[in-house]
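Tutorial, part two.
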Amino acid sequence: MTTRRSLLKGGAAASALAAAPAIVRGQNLNSKLQLASIGSDGKGFSDIKAMSTHNYQKYVAFCDVDTNRTLNVKKLSPETPIYQDFREMFAEKADEIDAVTVSTPDHMHAYCAISAMKLGKHVYCQKPMTHNVWENRQMMKVAKESGVITRLGNQIHSHKFYRTAVQIVQSGRIGKVKSVQSWVPTPGHGRSGHISRPKGEDPVPENLNWDSWIGVAPMRPYSAAHRCYHPWGWRDWQDFGSGAIGDFGCHILDPVFTALNITGPTDDYFADHSGMNDEVWPAQSTYSFTVPGTEYTDGERLKITWNDGGRRPNTKGSHLSAREALPPSGSLLVGEKGSLVIPHVAAPRLYFDGGELNEEYEMAEDKDHYHGWIDGCILEEQPSDDFQYGGRLTETLLLANIAIRFPKETLKWDSKKMEFSNKPEANRYLSRDYREGWELEKLIAG
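Running the prediction step on this input gives:
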């Protein structure tokens, strides 16, 4: 019998795939890959829709803490059961589930994903991978020990524009890279518009399980204030989200890390901001850090700088002319022979001496990020941005969000010891106190 596995490996035509049985890790080895979602609207629904176009998947359960945010999945798959607590979903449906998509606020990524991996389920988790560094290390450890197939939800990793930028750098067109600047216009507290907690307490809507939404974080009253916490404003709050760099860092820094083959630990974090309290992230931030040099960089260390909230990079020393405008967001790589601008989801811009735009390069193949993960689950092959790669990328921005709490100071990160060697008071931000009943330590040890 021709299997889905052999067809994928042999690159057979789509018409042949349609007639072939799938091979999955679940108990029924001839069934489709059976999926469940944790988070089923917004980005969660877009993930579900993209996964649903694969011929060899079937959603067997949906979960969302807000039942009002399950209307779209009910239309997509009316017969699929819906849960409000993912723990109940696993208790009832674990034997039927092969793989899970996690599309929740950042603070719940680790708890949901580790729960799934400890049950032997493949996991696709939205970026950033976790909310703090300790969680990130635990995610990488559990993923490696469980042997499941994992992928970070930085879908632009597979896009032809980012893949083309990687090709250009690794072909040597701009020479060895001397500096990198990345930026995004989004402000740190630009989604909710709040800079402090709303006063008072509003009744929790019947459709929302507020206890499960809070999850591992310290409990606080529900607020119905416009775009405050759920479903839109959570990224701004330090207890739940990771600010602008948490939202966009795993996208915009991805082609930089991939192209330069950055695998070593980051070091020497320096940050500055426009003003900050203990509740939300700054409106404007600048971060810099160094990484070990690679075959694609000039020198033993490479400095990478990040700006957000309207702060922009300096093109001085690059190969761009003064009249060349930078895109709203992206990265600027300055090399020995040329400079490369990598816009956020647009074709790369190549420049040499003289400053004129050069478009003489070959566009890379576009790949389907979602289908690639499903194929990996079927073939038992890790994608290029599994949780080991995703963990390195995520740790970079999580450390930046610690450095921002100590503006205009250089924090030296010791990756092996998992501590800031020159700033002990910064180490308290590497983890968090987990709320009773949601202790991640107990979940990992269990």
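The domain at 4-156+368-386 is CATH 3.40.50.720 (Rossmann fold). In part three we will examine how such features are distributed along the chain.
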